[in-house]
Structure to design on (399 residues):
């Protein structure tokens, strides 16, 4: 990618200087000069310039090269042979995309001892399951996995590559996109094949969910997206006895180098169910005032058969471990019911939970921003309201 100023067209008006969020442009002698060390190619100066004096040149793969890419692939994320739930959600949308393109749907799993995971996946409407196994790949290592997947993609050339927007998917797919020099849309909530151009239309919420942006990757392949959990339904298993073909790929140990070494694996789990999988989440924020008060949040979550979430303020205060954090730098959740207790509703928190089906907010400040996204609001002290709710729900459920 390259950006340049056309000297004959630039009159040094300085509009581009104001538009640049990186402060990478200055005007010298009536000519805009871009500092390429600071520029992040965001395009805002190009669209701001009234004189079309700044141009961005995008590297494009040749048309005949693009046409070699066929098929829809899903990254088969697994942990100790257990397939991540988002993978079977991706199978449902992946199948639709592959059918729309008249191509194959494949899953690629990387790890060690993947037979059980492959046998489970084979029951779904997938055409092929690629297994890349080696003892060195037993535990996830972004550097190693990224190099392996990029190598397989260069050889097999899938047109589309999807992964769950999980911690692994988010950290690893960006590496693969950089290595393959292609685009990646993170956190998608909608995917479709364009009727006229056959491109992958990747839709994702932007600006805290206030805008839905649809993103295309027309010039490079594969078209890559990570997809939020619980946006697509779990795919049903094949009803006609179809079993996916399992293809074992040859491991290349020369790809396994890594700058990190796993010394020990300490599992840090949520005290109740995983918030990403939960249909009901009760979250506590700074408004619960004391770590001991997470007990009342946990009791309500238990009464509802749900999980415990938290704002970053509660996590940063050391009241609850990080795996519970919901939001921009925590987890993105999409439960049927989200109850926010003593959480103000900062935009970074909303980014992780605003797509919940129903949101209930309990806050003593009637002007708290959380009420703007809540379907139901209770203005009150959560230390009083939450135990009352728990009692009522437990009574209704006959506990
Ligand atoms: C780069 C970046 C990333 C971030 N990522 C995240 C993220 O992933 N997740 C996240 O949550 N935040 C994140 N934050 C922090 C975010 O901006 C807020 O600071 C944080 O969400 C505030 O947490 P809170 O709502 O618990 O606390 P506060 O904003 O302090 O709100 C506490 C609320 O509790 C109410 N309250 C007080 N006492 C009671 C009571 N007894 N009963 C009922 N209500 C009461 C108050 O009225 C107030 O609204 C991020 C910030 C940055 C800059």
């Amino acid at each position: 990618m390259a950006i340049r100023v056309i000297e004959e067209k630039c009159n040094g008006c300085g509009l581009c200087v104001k538009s640049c969020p990186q402060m990478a442009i200055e005007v010298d002698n009536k000519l805009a000069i871009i500092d390429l060390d600071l520029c992040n190619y965001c395009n805002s100066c190009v669209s701001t310039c009234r004189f079309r004096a700044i141009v961005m040149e995008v590297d494009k793969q040749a048309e005949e090269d693009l046409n070699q890419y066929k098929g829809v692939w899903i990254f088969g994320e697994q942990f100790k042979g257990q397939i991540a739930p988002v993978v079977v959600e991706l199978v449902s949308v992946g199948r639709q995309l592959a059918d729309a393109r008249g191509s194959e749907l494949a899953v690629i799993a990387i790890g060690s001892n993947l037979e059980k995971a492959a046998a489970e996946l084979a029951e779904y409407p997938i055409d092929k399951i690629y297994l890349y196994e080696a003892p060195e790949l037993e535990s996830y290592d972004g550097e190693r996995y990224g190099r392996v997947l990029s190598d397989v993609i260069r050889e097999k050339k899938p047109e589309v590559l999807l992964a769950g927007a999980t911690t692994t998917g988010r950290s690893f797919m960006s590496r693969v996109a950089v290595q393959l020099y292609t685009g990646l849309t993170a956190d998608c909530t909608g995917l479709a094949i364009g009727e006229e151009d056959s491109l992958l239309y990747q839709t994702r919420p932007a600006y805290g969910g206030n805008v839905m942006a649809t993103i295309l990757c027309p010039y490079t392949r594969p078209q890559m997206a990570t997809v939020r959990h619980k946006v697509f339904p779990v795919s049903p298993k094949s009803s006609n006895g179809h079993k996916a073909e399992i293809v074992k790929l040859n491991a290349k140990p020369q790809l396994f180098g890594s700058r990190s070494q796993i010394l020990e694996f300490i599992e840090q789990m949520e005290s109740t169910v995983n918030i990403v999988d939960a249909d009901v989440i009760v979250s506590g924020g700074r408004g619960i005032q004391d770590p001991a008060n997470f007990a009342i949040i946990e009791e309500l979550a238990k009464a509802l058969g749900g999980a415990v979430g938290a704002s970053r303020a509660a996590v940063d205060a050391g009241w609850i471990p990080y795996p519970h954090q919901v939001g921009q730098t925590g987890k993105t959740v999409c439960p049927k019911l989200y109850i926010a207790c003593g959480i103000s509703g900062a935009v970074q928190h909303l980014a992780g939970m605003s797509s919940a089906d129903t949101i209930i907010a309990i806050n003593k400040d009637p002007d708290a921003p959380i009420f703007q996204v809540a379907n139901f609001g209770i203005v009150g002290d959560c230390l009083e309201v939450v135990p009352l709710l728990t009692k009522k729900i437990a009574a209704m459920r006959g506990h």
The chain has a mean pLDDT of 93.
